[in-house]
Amino acid sequence: MDPFSSAAIARQTWELENNIVTTTAANDNSAASDAIFYYDGAAQDAFQQEKPWANDPHYFKRVKVSALALLKMVVHARSGGNIEVMGLMQGKTDGDTIIVMDAFALPVEGTETRVNAQADAYEYMVDYSQTNRQAGRLENVVGWYHSHPGYGCWLSGIDVSTQMLNQQYQEPFLAVVIDPTRTVSAGKVEIGAFRTYPDGYKPPDEPVSEYQTIPLNKIEDFGVHCKQYYALDITYFKSSLDCELLDLLWNKYWVNTLSSSPLLGNGDYVAGQISDLAEKLEHAENQLSHSRFGPLIAPAQKKKEVRKTITFASFIT
Amino acid sequence: MASSSSSGLTFKLHPLVILNISDHYTRIKAQSQPPPTSSAADDAVSSQPPPRVFGCVIGVQCGRTVEIFNSFELLYDPSTHTLDRAFLEKKQELYKKVFPHFYVLGWYSTGGDAQESDMHIHKALMEINESPVYVLLNPSINHAQKDLPITIYESELHVIDGIPQLIFVQSSYIIETVEAERISVDHVAHLKPSDGSSAATQLAAHLTGIHSAIKMLNSRIRVLHHYLLAMQKGDLPCQNSLLRQVSSLLRRLPAIESEKFQDDFLMEYNDTLLITYLAMFTNCSSTMNEMVDKFNTAYDRHSRRGGRSAFI
């Protein structure tokens, strides 16, 4: 079909220009691409014994998430609405990469007392892992994920302490945060993968990663702990069958793409963001009047905020 | 064995189920056939027919609409052609805790076509759900086909040779997505760069998506147009049912004309313009602020560097 081929050419040119590193899964259509799905129990055990992460807090640098795990996590996060939800991820490790093959939800709703909730969830987790193993999923639990509806992908104080505990007793362990509200409003998946530094470790000064707007009431929590963990690069992979199915699926849901309207779904969220921005501007103004050097610090941050609102506005129009 | 279903139920399938089944199949296949790098005797192994996987689908049924949301794996005993019942119940309990609204709607399997032995499993599942659905995924990758290799079967009691028998009949289904599902499926399908989050790439990605969707719409309309032209010329036999559908579709355009809609639409439009205006304002004032700072630095009379000003 003619439009198909020109669309395909356009997409490929775009991919080339943007240096998209498609994992070999997408390009190779031999059995080698699906090799990632093979679980080598012996190799995993050997890796566990070795514990190369014990000496280097910055050991794990990348995360590969399977298409299925991503879909499950995003759908679960969105189904929670404005309540934080959490779940666990299963997978394995490969050198300095943590591979997430699957995810499942836990029957607890996140509140500030999340540490207690984990005790309830243990029984569920054990049951689920056992049944899964019987059904052919041999991977171990390799991390946990939870959602921050509307306030960005970062680790709060409680998250940081939970993760530090996890990294002491359940290595290798990964923390993933998803923001379903921002995902839907931006049309792009908001996800972040983190690992904490052990207590007392001073990280080398890394450049600040991509800036994200954080609501005023959470910004203190963010600032206090933001140096205690680092973000890992996330890439996605899918099997050859997945590729095929997803391509064909496009034939069916293109209608949904056209008919989706970010405005209707996110009116409240956008209004909330605008009022939050207004508060921050007032805050900055107050700072200005208190100190002479206020104007030097505040505008840099304001500029970035403003840039974000402009992208927002361009989306909703 | 498969003819059109007449039960009148509409089926909605979520992409999550499709990915679940595909993942299950790929996993089992990968475990039974170790990766090519491990041994040289793999050629014999890879020529085996791919294993069949089985599982259960869960979802919600409201009236005549059956919506399949999720699925999980089941254990299959090939000697007795039955599914492990205890396992199913255990798994069902676990899923009930997290998704209390979902019920067992049926089962799934992979393969080319529905087989005789599948009826045994279907009957076993009828104890849990009176009329279960059977979702079949064909894992053989065929690049020529344009349609999803998934079929949904229902069971119907037909009288064949004087004996009432249960046979599988095919049903049509539509793909239903929640907004979040659509975005993540889109994201993975096109493997966009995960760290290109600047405004430009985000907007570009968004527009690319819309552009492809519009292209699709355009091509579909063109196909219809050619078909109608051919019918008019007489190349193709006139199909009145199709003509009726097309005319009813055309009569529905323009879609919404009422005054209330116009009011609401204009209100939303005004709101968005207002916000854009506000954003532009803020940007302007910030740029102005920056310019003033730069000006002050360049022409600073109270400079501590002894009156040296930089001209650029």
From TrEMBL, chain A:
Sorted UniProt keywords: Hydrolase, Metal-binding, Metalloprotease, Protease, Signalosome, Zinc
The keyword Metal-binding is assigned to this record: yes
Occurrences of domain MPN (ranges): 63-200
Domain of life per record: Eukaryota
Biological process according to GO: COP9 signalosome assembly; negative regulation of photomorphogenesis; positive regulation of G2/M transition of mitotic cell cycle; proteolysis
MF terms in GO: metal ion binding; metallopeptidase activity
The keyword Transcription is assigned to this record: no
One Pfam short name: JAB
PROSITE patterns, sorted: MPN
SUPFAM superfamilies assigned to the protein according to its UniProt record, in alphabetical order: JAB1/MPN domain
Cofactor(s) demanded: a divalent metal cation
Cellular component annotations (GO), alphabetically ordered: COP9 signalosome
InterPro entries listed in its UniProt record: CSN5_C (IPR040961), JAMM/MPN+_dom (IPR000555), JAMM_MPN+_peptidase_M67A (IPR050242), MPN (IPR037518)
Family: Belongs to the peptidase M67A family. CSN5 subfamily.
The protein's name in its UniProt record: COP9 signalosome complex subunit 5b-like
Automatic annotation (TrEMBL), chain B:
Family annotation (InterPro entries): EIF3F/CSN6-like_C, JAMM/MPN+_dom, MPN, MPN_CSN6
Top-level taxon in the UniProt lineage: Eukaryota
Entries under CDD domains matching the protein: MPN_CSN6 (cd08063)
Domain MPN positions: 11-159
Subcellular location: Cytoplasm; Nucleus
PROSITE patterns per UniProt: MPN
Entry's family note: Belongs to the peptidase M67A family. CSN6 subfamily.
Protein name: COP9 signalosome complex subunit 6
Native species: Olea europaea subsp. europaea
